[in-house]
């Protein structure tokens, strides 16, 4: 009897707490979240850029790098007088880079009149699930990390400052061809890796490189020996990797530590993560890159200095692209107006956006692909723990 | 070739050492512990911290990690598993998924998100052996695996405590009556298994060399498959299962490339279960009581009064036009997931069979409609209906052999079915565009009119949802529905009166897959872009959780479940970083304190 009472009271209490918490959250949400779109009405003194990014979840590391770059960008814009005299703000939305969440949050962003442009998300899938909403709202979606070949196909309000893989992989293949005629290639199995490798393969063939082994790998595979053993046994002049930092480090560590491969290695990624994870095995890694902390590009050098001052560490590619996206949009708006129309007009008309990648100092958009027009990249080699420019 | 075998063997050993703990817990508490992978990942990260930040050596690291993860195991059992003891096993299964979420996110918050190098606590690449280099660490891990396996087996068989553990596993009530302190026994087995998971984390960390807070989950899932292949509850089975899977994966990937990885792993699972339905070393399960048991049987859905139904429908219809677009878009997500989950009231509710692979039919529906409407210019409605049909037919074909299995084996086999479906979509590149994904899927179009706004799409999805609700309610009330329910309530009795239980289970699953396919098709036309990475295991577990939370006996309940589970991450948005942890806690609380589901009362 007492026992039963005890249980039912405890159940009652916790049940009530749960219900209370639910009610409380939905009540909060009613006021702030699902309000009839009046929240964030544009105040005359500031404008905002909305950021969809993975603050939590499996891509949180990239979210962190984005935030560093974005915060620095907005700080500088405001220090230089803001946009058209108004203060620039960032409105962050954690999406875990999950399409279910970006699709849900997109109308909230579109309805916020203070938002003049949207940047993000990390993955193409998450970005593209939100694009249609922005397209309809005539709100520019500036996917600074979305290099997938179809990303801008949703409509004319979807843009990306990413260069096309066709341009990038052509120069990548040229770099490989300088030293290798016979290669084994591995690439990450996702939309980006697949299309990047297809472009690379096309260009490599044109240059007379023979590919003696190729395989994709899944991003969450933890042992890549079964594909790297046949890659090694094919006796290539070089192993080419197309993917990201952590998996690039896994590839080069497995090749060198486990399989005793001593030949050339092309790939990896220009991040501190790759440099740290690959350690001495990574030394001699070659790749072409849009950006390195030692870039000779004057814009990039200025950015690196500011980044080091703010975070006491060297910036990587993700810091740079996110930073540049804010600078681009602010630069554009200062030439047109600090409105949604202003952003769109700027991307269509401005032809001297500050360029942080490669060797050029300005860039414009290719109006048919809505991407950065062709550019040149840096030839890099990892020496003494740093990606350094070679020839 | 020999070198591939060696690396496969070593990788398999990493699976084996994780699988041992999973099998121990299953043997003692009959819980498929999905949190084990997270405990293992936590052990890996703690070891990284002790080894590289504090610079401790291998011995103090092992002791400290075992202590901390052992404590986590104790908390896991006392706070979450024990309260669910007399409940159907699906309750504990879902609760451990919630615990896994909490642990993974806590680990990320404590240790940061980046991938880092694991300290070389023992030399890792110092022995050259037939074309590959292995290390002292690998050898020690292998010896440890064998020692743990032999030690556990002997302990369970001959030790006094071990015998008590086994007695508890066989019959908790009887064990209590002969004076065995059952609670303490179960606590001890969780402590041992979790400490083992932590120690496994140290060695797998050295094997992988690069680790992050999320790397536990991918190894953990494969280790689960290994434990299942070996036979759940069997110590030698866990080891043989792990080694077999490691070697099969290595040879398969060597021959077909890593793109086919999931196909090989889950293909091996299904094939082995078909030949040996209880795994390589598993004992034949005599009882095959339905996993969802009283989740449905002991509960009755609330009835919505006749006058209230129309009011609710009108309210749902009008709401989007009064609120913001954001309300509509969140509403669409909620309704799509409710549609995908509602069919499970037939499979997991009536037929009593847990299905953890619904991402498969959802993906099939999405792809079918995307291709038909987007590329072959079929009309929207035709695309959506075909999406449902293709999902039902293909899922039924792939799942058909699974119904011969019993208990947890069906649940785990359905995970395989979901993953195989998505892996096949990835491989059939000429039709599906593989990993590249399909872009430019048109918005829903009815009678030449495109539904551009979120409000109109909301109304469309609402219409589909109500039609599904009507059909499923009708089926549940019909003769067919009662027959399926009888299978869930008493499979032996139904077979004895001539009902072919596996055929009816397959039929119930086909119905659920049909509606999941329709939900997937609607999803595709809303996102306008799909790729295989959008249908992970997390989608499957979310769909099942929605059905369970709402009340497996209640189709209306799934809508409520979806409001809580799909809506909550949006509602909790104001709390930023910790929201997934709060979400996990909320999930566990509801499972513990509302076992019959939100929209049902106990009988």
UniProtKB/TrEMBL annotation, chain A:
Database matches in InterPro entries: BCAA_transport, Leu-bd, Leu_Ile_Val-bd, Peripla_BP_I
UniProt cross-references to Pfam families, sorted A to Z: Peripla_BP_6 (PF13458)
SUPFAM superfamilies: Periplasmic binding protein-like I (SSF53822)
Record-linked PROSITE patterns: PROKAR_LIPOPROTEIN (PS51257)
Gene Ontology biological process terms in this record: amino acid transport
Domain Leucine-binding protein as annotated: residue spans: 47-363
Keywords annotated in UniProt: Amino-acid transport, Signal, Transport
Domain of life: Bacteria
Coiled-coil region list: none
Keyword Plastid found: no
Family statement drawn from the similarity comment of this UniProt entry: Belongs to the leucine-binding protein family.
Name under which the protein is recorded: ABC transporter substrate-binding protein
Organism, as annotated: Bifidobacterium fermentum
From TrEMBL, chain B:
Pfam families assigned to the protein according to its UniProt record, in alphabetical order: BPD_transp_2
Key words of the record: Cell membrane, Membrane, Transmembrane, Transmembrane helix
Phylogenetic lineage: Bacteria, Bacillati, Actinomycetota, Actinomycetes, Bifidobacteriales
TM spans (from-to): 6-27, 57-79, 91-111, 131-156, 188-207, 219-251, 263-281, 307-327, 334-356, 376-402, 409-428, 448-472, 506-530, 542-568, 580-599
Domain of life assignment: Bacteria
GO cellular component, one term: plasma membrane
Membrane topology, from the record: Multi-pass membrane protein
Organism: Bifidobacterium fermentum
Matches recorded under InterPro entries: ABC_BtuC-like, ABC_transp_permease, LivM-like
Name of this chain's protein: ABC transporter permease
A GO MF label: branched-chain amino acid transmembrane transporter activity
UniProt subcellular location: Cell membrane
């Amino acid at each position: 009897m007492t026992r039963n009472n005890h249980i039912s009271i405890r159940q009652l209490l916790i049940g009530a707490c749960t219900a209370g918490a639910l009610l409380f959250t939905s009540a909060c949400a009613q006021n702030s979240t699902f309000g009839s779109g009046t929240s964030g009405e544009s105040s005359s003194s500031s404008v905002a850029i909305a950021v969809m990014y993975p603050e939590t979840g499996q891509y949180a590391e990239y979210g962190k790098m984005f935030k560093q770059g974005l915060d620095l960008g907005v700080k500088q814009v405001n220090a230089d007088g803001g946009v058209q005299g108004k203060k620039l703000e960032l409105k962050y939305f954690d999406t875990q880079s999950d399409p279910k969440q970006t699709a849900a949050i997109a109308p909230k962003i579109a309805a916020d009149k203070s938002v003049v442009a949207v940047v993000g998300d990390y993955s193409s899938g998450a970005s593209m699930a939100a694009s249609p909403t922005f397209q309809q709202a005539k709100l520019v979606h500036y996917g600074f990390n979305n290099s997938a070949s179809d990303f801008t196909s949703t409509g004319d309000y979807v843009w990306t400052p990413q260069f096309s893989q066709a341009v990038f992989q052509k120069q990548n293949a040229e770099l490989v061809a300088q030293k290798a005629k016979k290669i084994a290639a591995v690439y990450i199995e996702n939309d980006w890796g697949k299309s990047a490798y297809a472009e690379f393969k096309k260009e490599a063939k044109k240059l007379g490189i023979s590919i003696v082994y190729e395989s994709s790998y899944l991003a969450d595979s933890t042992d890549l020996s079964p594909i790297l053993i046949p890659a090694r046994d094919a006796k290539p002049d070089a192993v080419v990797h197309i993917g990201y930092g952590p998996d690039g480090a896994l590839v080069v560590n497995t090749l060198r530590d486990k399989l005793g491969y001593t030949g050339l290695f092309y790939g990896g990624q220009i991040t501190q993560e790759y440099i740290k994870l690959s350690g001495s095995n990574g030394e001699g890694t070659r790749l072409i890159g849009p950006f390195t902390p030692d870039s000779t590009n004057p814009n990039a050098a200025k950015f690196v200095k500011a980044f080091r001052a703010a975070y006491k560490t060297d910036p990587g590619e993700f810091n740079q692209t996110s930073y540049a996206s804010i600078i681009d949009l602010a630069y554009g708006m200062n030439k047109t107006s600090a409105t949604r129309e202003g952003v769109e007009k700027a991307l269509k008309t401005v032809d001297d956006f500050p360029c942080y990648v490669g060797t050029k100092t300005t860039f414009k958009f290719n109006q048919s692909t809505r991407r950065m027009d062709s550019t040149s990249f840096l030839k890099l080699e990892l020496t003494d723990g740093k990606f350094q420019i070679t020839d | 070739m020999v070198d591939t075998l060696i690396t496969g063997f070593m990788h398999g050993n990493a699976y084996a050492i994780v699988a041992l703990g999973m099998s121990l817990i299953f043997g003692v508490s009959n819980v498929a512990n999905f949190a084990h992978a997270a405990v293992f990942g936590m052990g890996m990260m703690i070891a990284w911290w002790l080894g590289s930040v504090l610079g401790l050596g291998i011995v103090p690291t092992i002791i400290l990690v075992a202590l901390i993860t052992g404590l986590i195991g104790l908390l896991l059992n006392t706070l979450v598993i024990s309260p669910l003891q007399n409940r159907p096993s699906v309750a504990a299964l879902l609760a451990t998924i919630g615990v896994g979420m909490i642990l993974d996110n806590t680990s990320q918050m404590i240790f940061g998100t980046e991938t880092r190098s694991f300290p070389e606590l023992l030399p890792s690449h110092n022995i050259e052996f037939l074309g590959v280099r292995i290390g002292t660490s690998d050898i020690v891990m292998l010896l440890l695996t064998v020692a743990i396996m032999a030690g556990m087996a002997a302990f369970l068989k001959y030790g006094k405590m071990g015998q008590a553990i086994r007695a508890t596993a066989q019959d908790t009530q009887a064990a209590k009556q002969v004076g065995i302190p059952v609670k303490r026994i179960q606590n001890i087995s969780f402590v041992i298994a979790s400490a083992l998971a932590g120690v496994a984390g140290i060695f797998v960390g050295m094997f992988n060399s690069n680790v992050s807070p999320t790397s536990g989950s991918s190894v953990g899932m494969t280790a689960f498959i290994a434990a299942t292949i070996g036979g759940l509850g069997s110590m030698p089975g866990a080891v043989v299962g792990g080694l077999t899977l490691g070697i099969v994966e290595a040879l398969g990937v060597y021959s077909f490339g890593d793109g086919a990885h999931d196909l090989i792993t889950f293909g091996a699972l299904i094939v082995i279960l078909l030949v040996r339905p209880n795994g390589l070393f598993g004992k034949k399960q005599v009882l095959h009581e339905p996993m969802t048991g009283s989740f449905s049987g002991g509960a009755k859905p609330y009835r919505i009064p006749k006058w209230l139904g129309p009011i609710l429908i009108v309210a749902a219809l009008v709401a989007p036009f009064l609120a913001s677009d954001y309300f509509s878009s969140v509403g669409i997500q909620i309704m799509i997931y409710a549609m995908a989950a509602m069919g499970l009231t037939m499979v997991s509710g009536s037929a009593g069979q847990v299905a953890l692979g619904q991402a498969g039919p959802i993906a099939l529906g999405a792809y079918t409609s995307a291709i038909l409407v987007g590329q072959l210019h079929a009309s929207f409605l035709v695309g959506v209906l075909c999406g449902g049909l293709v999902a039902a037919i293909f899922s039924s074909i792939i799942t058909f052999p699974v119904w011969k299995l019993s208990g947890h084996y069906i649940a785990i086999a359905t995970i395989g079915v979901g993953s195989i479906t998505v892996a096949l979509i990835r491989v059939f590149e000429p039709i599906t565009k593989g990993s590249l994904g399909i872009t430019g899927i048109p918005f829903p179009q009815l009678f030449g009119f495109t539904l551009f706004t979120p409000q109109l799409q909301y109304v469309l999805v609402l219409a589909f949802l109500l039609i599904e609700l009507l059909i499923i309610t009708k089926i549940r009330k019909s003769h067919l529905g009662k027959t399926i329910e009888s299978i869930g309530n008493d499979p032996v009795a139904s077979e004895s009166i001539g009902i072919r239980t596996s055929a009816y289970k397959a039929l119930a699953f086909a119905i659920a897959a049909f509606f999941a396919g329709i939900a997937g098709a609607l999803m595709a036309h809303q996102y306008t872009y799909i790729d295989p990475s959008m249908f992970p295991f997390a989608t499957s577990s979310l769909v099942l959780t929605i059905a369970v939370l709402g009340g497996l006996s209640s189709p209306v309940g799934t809508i409520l479940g979806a409001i809580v589970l799909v809506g909550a991450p949006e509602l909790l948005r104001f709390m930023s970083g910790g929201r997934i942890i709060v979400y996990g806690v909320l999930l566990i609380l509801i499972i513990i304190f509302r076992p019959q589901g939100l929209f049902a009362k106990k009988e």
